[in-house]
TrEMBL record:
The keyword Transcription applies. Coiled coil: none annotated. It comes from the Bacteria. One of its GO terms (molecular function) is DNA binding. InterPro entries: HTH-type_LysR_regulators, LysR_HTH_N, LysR_subst-bd, WH-like_DNA-bd_sf, WH_DNA-bd_sf. This is LysR family transcriptional regulator. SUPFAM superfamilies: Periplasmic binding protein-like II, Winged helix' DNA-binding domain. Keywords: DNA-binding, Plasmid, Transcription, Transcription regulation. The keyword DNA-binding applies. Residues 3-60 form the HTH lysR-type domain. It holds the Pfam family HTH_1. GO terms for cellular component: cytosol.
Amino acid sequence: MRFDLTDLRLFLAVVNAGSITHGASDAGLSLPAASERLRDMEIDGEVVLLERGRRGVVPTEAGEALAHHARAIMHQMSQMRDEIGQYAKGLRANVRVLANTAATAEILPTRLAPWLAARPQVDVELRERQSTEIARSISAGFAEIGILSSAVETGGLILRPFAIDRLVVVAARDHPLSKRPRIRFVDALEYHFISLVGGALQDHIDAQAAKLGTRLKTRIALRSFDGICRMAGEGVGIGLVPETAARRYKRITQIGILPLQDDWATRRLSICVRSEKELTPLALDLFQHLAAEEQREDR
């Protein structure tokens, strides 16, 4: 069997996502190229690695064995780059981080900036994912560090406090909802929304609407929280954004901010790893830095 590192990285991505399409995207390959690589891996090894079905793919027993060894190899490669990087100026190291929307857009840029600035030879591969997917990915060893909602099942992962993520409704000052001190999500569903373009947070919000047997009435979908706040302030509709984003925009112009009473709207975020002992020195340093930053903010 002649599997290269791209093959192994792709296979782990597919196993983790349960989908060749999503796995190919995570590995940075086109679907045709990924499908051809997977097919060649099975032909070369004379073994079926994936069971393909209408709902996605799952590894066979042979596939599980390959995934186990692939994780070990990728971890060793990461350690090698980290250790050699201490001696070779031109070699770059990489830490992979998975985080939910609020952490990616609102919290991590500030906390990561000083750490990265002090380490010019280090890159952070940051991917946005839903919390449940993050927990699976970290457990499977597909990424070193995850930032997720503590409400999801995390199994045997190591958790440290990271931040509190509160979702609020933003609306124009003269909007009917702005007269209330706080509202329930169900009360907002009769109005038109300014939503996010996809992403883990929007998926989470849509799922809450689905539980109530309905869907958001979306007028437009934007890519940034600031854009949502700006349009909400102009009376285009209402938005649902992290409180940090709403308060940042309120410094620029007047906008109504309404806390949501629903339990799911206030989430305690945690930073997680599978095992501190398995982390490369760089990944461990970043993990400790991010956890320590939360403690400083609490003070």
